[in-house]
Amino acid sequence: MNKILKSEYLSGRVLLALNLILVLAIIQLFTIPLYLHFTSNSVLIENIIFLPMLGYCILASIFSILLHEQEEKANSFQNINSEKNRAIIWGMKLIATDLLMVLLGIPVWIVVGFDFDRLSYYAYVGVISWLLLILLNHFHMLLSLIMGKAGNLVISFIECLFIIFATNKVFLDSYWLPIALPVNLILEFGGNKIFMIITYLIGFIILLYFCNLAVINKFKIQKNM
Description:
This protein is mainly alpha-helical. 77% of the residues lie in helices and 0% in strands. InterPro entries: ABC_permease_NisG-like.
């Protein structure tokens, strides 16, 4: 009975994380398109694209902490600590979360694209935002395996600073900085550097995915401090 109750608690924790994404997606859909519809400031219209990215950093950190806690409490009766299944389970969670992030990255910009009659551009922005969310998800899930909650959150705020600097074109040619690549892709829309930048971005996403699998195979999940 105790295990059943504990499983229900864990399911509630997962639902909390999923509901967090759904609520934020709905808030975006009801605020960003409406606000842009009634503003005539062209500078604001162009720059508001980057505003949600700051929230994505913190969201990815919180989401990774929630999922890590779920696994930590489930270890006594689930297979996450099994050497055979550990990487498979963690990898599936990463992919499932990546797919769920579509709700945050794409729909709001599709709506904005229809409103401004620039569907191709804003659909592009939506896809890039989704890739940023995937990058952040993989990175913060990796951090959840090797450091505590506080460190994970602190790094998310540092990422926000990098995004702010990137919007000012400080890291325009910095392919070594993954967090700046999605911003650069938007700034370089229609340019000849897009293919190279997106190749680096996808490469970092794949690298972080396999880093997650390698770390979870090699080490036991440590307790968050």
